[in-house]
Amino acid sequence: MNGNIIVGQSGGPTAAINSSLAGVYRTAKDRGARKVFGMLHGIQGLLQERYIDLSDYIKNDLDTELLKRTPAAFLGSCRFKLPEIHEDREVYEKIFGILDKLDIEAFIYIGGNDSMDTIKKLSDYAIVTGHPTRFIGCPKTIDNDLALTDHTPGYGSAAKYIGTSIKEIIRDSFCLEYEKGVVTIVEIMGRNAGWLTGSASLSRGEDCCGPDLIYLPELPFDLKKFGEKVKNLLSSKSSVVIAVSEGLRLSDGRYVCELGQSLDFVDAFGHKQLSGTANYLASYVAGEIGCKTRSIELSTLQRSGSHLASRVDILEAYQVGGAAVKAADEGDSGKMVVLNRISDDPYQCGTKVKDVHKIANDEKLVPRKWMNEEGDYVAEEFINYVRPLIQGDVSPIMVDGIPRHLFRPV
Ligand code: F6P
């Protein structure tokens, strides 16, 4: 490698995305890259020529370690959809002009399915125009919904945070006794895929009963049946805890969170901003049963909880960053690095690269057979799949009693 590299972060942040950035930076430097540029706010920022030289921020090994432990996107992120090449060539000419100016040999984009659409289009444009820059995708998303990879970096840490938080919520919910009982509903991210919501089951063990019900967005949600189940559970226990996906929909396609409000904000990919499912269901239960209810939205806490990060996840995130640079250096383009699970016990996982055209814009959902028959819990196969991904800890570097992060003034 003798040119420069540019790396960007895109889509929803995670606790592990900066570990991938650290992996890209270190590997690029080790393989001889002269400069490693970071796009500020992904492709959207690059179009405005906003970028930094990462060596101004990562000066030593301690900075690398801090970056690996820093949640959210160090470079800033974006949700930006590139037009089709035939729709607007000017955008592509502008991007490639900037890449030429910076002498970019490889372009690495760390993101989810929408972000892989960017890698797909840019690598296609490079082929059409005979441009030498290589484009490689580096997987990332707490949603774990990317095709062709066993799992995605960011998922393991979010799952660990969710499993732990649900356990703590259950512990708390049994303290106070109310006449008609208490129902706690916890809303978890993942608009169409229930990988994150299913990880609530990780709280179950010898010292915890786990949530009573888990509803994934893959199956249509039946409000009336739900109410009856809750009533039934309250006849035998004083506290009921339920994990629900933010993306629960009724059989007519309406989001449950839409029942209580109108969802006005829509992003560049046409996704409605989902929020309020737990709140709506808690009011519904209170209205039907008259018991105490509480709704908890884990919201951004579940994707930025780096103090509870999974060691497996942070190391794999670093590894995929390095593998992306290696792939570009070896001449690959239009590919994404995937995680390839070799065995569960002992857990072993390696990396490969796969064609990004088969990954972009696709969504991997939880298989029906990984849920129970009633559709209100996950099956053992699901738990066996996720358990290895949450193993081990990464101790935060504590300063004045609070985790220290690598800081970039914005
Ligand atoms: O990209 C993953 C994700 O965390 C989804 O689970 C969630 O629906 C979405 O991002 C929320 O994104 P935003 O922060 O843009 O509202």
From TrEMBL:
SUPFAM superfamilies: Phosphofructokinase
Catalytic reaction equation(s): beta-D-fructose 6-phosphate + diphosphate = beta-D-fructose 1,6-bisphosphate + phosphate + H(+)
BP term (GO), one: fructose 6-phosphate metabolic process
Pathway the protein acts in: Carbohydrate degradation; glycolysis; D-glyceraldehyde 3-phosphate and glycerone phosphate from D-glucose: step 3/4
GO annotation, cellular component aspect: cytoplasm
E.C. number: 2.7.1.90
Chain sites annotated for binding substrate: 141-143, 189-191, 246
Site (Important for catalytic activity): 140
Keyword Cell division in record: no
Residue positions binding Mg(2+): 113
InterPro entries: ATP_PFK (IPR022953), PFKA (IPR050929), Phosphofructokinase_dom (IPR000023), PKF_sf (IPR035966), PPi-PFK (IPR011404)
GO molecular function: 6-phosphofructokinase activity; diphosphate-fructose-6-phosphate 1-phosphotransferase activity; metal ion binding
Keyword Metal-binding belongs to the record: yes
Subcellular location field: Cytoplasm
Catalytic residue positions: 143 (proton acceptor)
Residues annotated as binding diphosphate: 12
Regulation: Non-allosteric.
Key words, A-Z: Cytoplasm, Glycolysis, Kinase, Magnesium, Metal-binding, Transferase
Record-annotated Phosphofructokinase domain positions: 4-327
Site annotation Important for catalytic activity and substrate specificity: residues: 114
Cofactor(s) named in the record: Mg(2+)
Family under the similarity heading: Belongs to the phosphofructokinase type A (PFKA) family. PPi-dependent PFK group II subfamily. Clade 'B2' sub-subfamily.
Assembly with partners or alone: Homodimer.
Function, as annotated: Catalyzes the phosphorylation of D-fructose 6-phosphate, the first committing step of glycolysis. Uses inorganic phosphate (PPi) as phosphoryl donor instead of ATP like common ATP-dependent phosphofructokinases (ATP-PFKs), which renders the reaction reversible, and can thus function both in glycolysis and gluconeogenesis. Consistently, PPi-PFK can replace the enzymes of both the forward (ATP-PFK) and reverse (fructose-bisphosphatase (FBPase)) reactions.
Protein name per UniProt: Pyrophosphate--fructose 6-phosphate 1-phosphotransferase
Organism: Blautia liquoris
